[in-house]
Design brief:
With about 850 residues, the chain is an alpha+beta fold. Helix 3 crosses helix 5 (about 170-200). The chain is globular, with a radius of gyration of 36 Å. It binds one DNA strand of 8 nucleotides through strand 5, helix 3, helix 5 and helix 15.
DNA sequence: GCAAGGTC
């Protein structure tokens, strides 16, 4: 029997498709990554009986990145990222071990059918799957074809069965166009991001973002927000005048008439109109017209519309909304929430879905009425061929969903009910009046059939005063006629909903990525979310966009994305060569990049207005080893030290506090040491600002403090203060924290293990001697006579922290489970057999004595 | 540490 592997883009689709093709007759099991399932059933394929295995990936299997050494921001010139830096495909989510999973399931299969989404990304994933699976599948017999592509436009029985009966081939060109997009986005985004981040960080001390990112989607998104800001800033209010007339009808009530000219911007002309209408004492009805008008029921719900409404009506941001929707989906309350489609599939069970809502306390009445009177055919929407519109899938109560979950579900349910309701119908009455030579109008609306507005009351036609019934030629006395002086108002900041509309219109991002881009510009502190979910650009956001406009407006215009996509489309249509398009587009952006770098002074002029130069920021903290002047500590993230005399910036560890460390100096470079400490875990270590940025020894890396320094003799180094291998992590060493007394502790220099010991000891020192059993450094401890916990009123003791019986009660291993042989298990520390030669210590050089001491010394003198 | 695109 032949075996057929079939792969969909996500677990939910694999299940739906398998259920359709097996007619519900399948067995399912979880795959080895826990995320994907495998559904198996029997059938026939290519005229022979076959065993089918339907499974899925989780989106892209692979992601594109530069090879390792090009990810070093300090050593790589961003310009190299345009051509020189090689890229490689890495597993998109290593935790899912997707390649291995596919290979386990694909081994021994004869055929593969690709059921990935029918768009370019899906086509690209086809080849990612093939790259993983073809090497382990059975080799084709003769000239037999083994790779098939299913093309479907909806998840319905007919569509899926049709696809299975008309299998095609994956489209290499479409996949290549995605490869090209990935490479362009990566090279362009990273080059600009790294350049401007490093450039501005090295220049200004109070930028309020630690990452000044640039991207072909996020930057135009920011551009929209700043464009609105500029409109507000440049807005000049204008005074205008409106002629307002009121007429009496039915004794007490008066009717306000709207001027047909709406408004005029010249006071004298306005005054003239007032004068000529004032002469008339009456208003004459010129015409009365009645029209039946319709407010259309909504189209079926897709993702962007849901995001818009969630933002503007529910006050929920797009990222948050998608998280909630994702949860409602996985719990089975709503259908798949990422779709562009606004048209229900032909065989969609509208009535079934409606019946599920018949007992909801809020809308049972409406639903029951619809069910008994017959539902209305939904409007014809757009079928993007991806997923059905977003609908409720089962009944839910406010109590079980809670908070935002319920609010979103309620909206989705009401929207769904509205789509099968009738339109709202109303009668619009328009009365035209003349007062002297001027014309005025009065409009009244009367609902004749509320239709869908019953379930979406916020769309209902507001109740208005009823108009008088009158006819042509009727005369009404004027009770008042006057000029109103008003001013034009500036527009307000862009709402999130408006931004989503703009992004959709210009093709910036996709339904799934729009929330990510909006979130990005918030996180980078380019915009803030104000009340009413309006997006107000920050100084940083404004300066960046104005700078791009000044240097190269294309960098921020929304057209940049569509121009590139036009080129990419040529690849997918087979009309252009992948390499040529890629090379050509990269060349253009490389030129743009160099021009941007050369013109960066133009951006600086704008930056200087809002931000302070590094030299003017921060407080003097420690002395520079080169000029011996004080360097300034810039606390704003990313915190760093800046020597204005040498014009050098030294980065520091983040998320903690930095203090001067007793004016002690690094023996290698004379820089004053600083002490970093983390608040919560109470871990701290000294570091040399210079060594932290320029590792002094070959075996050290950037970002190491003294607790990782292999200097053989410096009193602050790992060599002098290291005690023993970390009890938890693989490579860490527990290092004495010399500043920690009287609550002494040692902390791992790699992970966050902290060991408290010898509380109230007067002195704790690391001895040059080592433990004979476990090879750890011995520790000398001095206690005050009065407080000594040592037996026999001793005040001093020297021993191994791990093995010495005298010490065992004085060592308190904090944080997480300890795996050191001595501290295994909860009951009694000495139960384990093997103390001493712990496995973690065997075969490793003692951290106290670098094996290659001469090498370290040699490096020291270089 | 960076992009945008899938999805968990």
């Amino acid at each position: 029997m032949r075996a057929v592997l079939m792969v969909a883009e996500k677990p939910s689709l694999a299940q739906s498709i398998a259920r359709i093709l097996s007619r519900g007759n399948m067995t399912s099991r979880k795959g080895l990554n826990g995320a994907c399932s495998v559904h198996e059933y029997g059938g026939s394929f290519a005229g022979q009986s076959a065993h089918f295995k339907m499974t899925s990936v989780c989106g892209h299997v692979m992601t594109l990145d530069f090879i390792g050494k090009y990810n070093n921001w300090d050593k790589v010139d961003p310009a190299e990222l345009f051509s020189k830096a090689p890229t490689e495909k890495k597993e998109a989510n290593p935790k899912l071990t997707m390649v291995k999973f596919l290979q386990v399931e694909g081994r021994g299969c004869d055929y593969i059918v690709l059921w990935l989404d029918c768009d370019k990304e899906g086509e690209n994933i086809c080849f990612e799957v093939l790259d993983a699976v073809l090497p382990v599948m059975n080799k084709p017999r003769g000239s037999e074809r083994t790779v098939y592509r299913a093309k479907f436009s909806s998840i319905t029985d007919t569509d899926i069965c049709n696809a299975m009966n008309n299998l095609g081939e994956p489209n290499r060109n479409e996949a290549l166009s995605v490869d090209a997009r990935q490479e362009l986005d990566l090279r362009i985004g990273c080059a600009f991001t790294r350049f401007q981040t490093k450039y501005f960080q090295g220049k200004y001390g109070n930028l309020d973002s630690s990452l000044i990112s640039f991207g072909p989607c996020q930057t135009p998104t920011l551009g929209f927000c700043v464009e609105r800001h500029d409109k507000i800033q440049s807005f000049k209010p204008e005074t205008y005048w409106v002629l307002q007339a009121k007429v009496n009808h039915e004794k007490e009530s008066s009717l306000t008439l709207e001027w047909d000219r709406v408004r005029v911007f010249d006071r004298e002309i306005a005054q003239m109109f007032l004068n000529i209408t004032k002469i008339a004492k009456e208003a004459k009805v010129e015409s009365v017209s009645k029209k039946e008008k319709v407010k259309q029921r909504p189209l079926a719900l897709n993702t962007v519309e849901m995001l818009r409404v969630a933002s503007s009506a529910l006050g929920m941001g797009p990222q948050h909304t998608m998280q909630i929707a994702e949860r409602l989906y996985t719990q089975g309350y709503i259908s798949y929430p990422r779709t562009e489609t606004t048209h229900y599939p032909e065989n969609f069970d509208l009535k079934g879905a409606l019946r599920q809502q018949a007992n909801n306390p809020y809308w049972a009445e409406t639903v029951k009425a619809l069910l008994s009177e017959g539902i209305n055919r939904p409007r014809k929407g757009h079928d993007a061929g991806d997923h059905p519109p977003i609908t409720p899938m089962r009944a839910a109560s406010e109590a079980e969903l809670g908070g935002d979950g319920w609010r979103l579900y309620e909206y989705i349910a009401r929207h769904f009910i509205a789509t099968v309701s009738t339109d709202c119908k109303y009668l619009q009455t328009t009365i035209s009046f003349s007062i002297g030579p001027e014309h005025f109008t009065c409009i009244g609306k009367m609902v004749t059939s509320p239709g869908f507005t019953e379930i979406m009351p916020w769309h209902s036609i507001p109740l208005e005063e009823s108009l008088p019934s009158c006819e042509r030629g009727d005369i009404y006395p004027i009770s008042e006629i006057k000029l109103l002086e008003k001013q034009t108002n500036p527009p307000d900041y862009l709402t999130e909903a408006e931004l989503i509309t703009l992004m959709e219109k210009h093709g910036i991002g996709t339904d799934a990525s729009i929330p990510v881009h909006i979130n990005n510009i918030c996180q980078r502190n380019y915009v803030t979310v104000e009340s009413g979910r309006r997006l107000k650009p920050t100084n940083l956001g404004i300066v960046l966009v104005h700078g791009y406009y000044k240097i190269d407006a294309e960098l921020v215009l929304p057209t940049i994305r569509s121009a590139v996509e036009k080129q990419l489309n040529l690849i997918s249509l087979g009309k252009a060569n992948y390499h040529q398009v890629l090379e050509h587009t990269l060349d253009i952006f490389k030129r743009k990049f160099h021009y941007f770098v050369d013109s960066i002074a133009g951006m600086d002029e704008l930056m200087e207005v809002s931000f302070s130069p590094l030299a003017d920021t921060g407080k003097p903290l420690s002395r520079c080893g080169k000029c011996h002047r004080f360097m300034k500590y810039i606390q704003a993230k990313p915190s760093r030290l800046h020597c204005s005399h040498c014009d050098e910036t030294y980065s520091l560890p983040q998320n903690g506090t930095i203090k001067l460390y007793k004016e002690l100096r690094c023996p290698l470079d004379d820089f004053e040491l600083v002490l970093w400490s983390s608040g919560s875990r109470g871990k701290s270590y000294p570091l040399c600002p210079y060594c932290y940025n320029h590792p002094p020894f070959r075996d050290m890396k950037k970002g190491m403090g003294c607790n990782e320094c292999t200097h053989p003799t410096c009193q602050h180094s790992l060599s002098m203060l290291g005690i023993g291998q970390c009890v938890e992590c693989e490579n860490g060493v527990l290092v004495l924290d010399p500043t920690s007394g009287p609550k002494w502790k040692m902390a791992c220099n790699k992970c966050n293990v902290v060991v408290h010991f010898f509380e109230n000891a007067h002195k704790v020192r690391v001895s040059p001697e080592t433990c004979e059993v476990c090879d750890a450094a011995l520790v000398d401890v001095d206690f005050n006579k009065a407080k000594s916990p040592l037996p026999g009123d001793e005040t001093q003791h020297s021993g191994c922290v791990f093995c010495d019986p005298v010490f065992q009660d004085l060592v308190e291993l904090k944080h997480a489970a300890m795996r050191h042989p001595m501290h295994r298990g909860g009951q009694g520390k000495r139960q384990g057999r093997g103390r001493g030669k712990g496995r973690r210590l065997g075969g490793r050089p003692n951290p106290k004595k670098p094996k290659d001491k001469m090498a370290a010394l040699a490096a020291y003198f270089v």
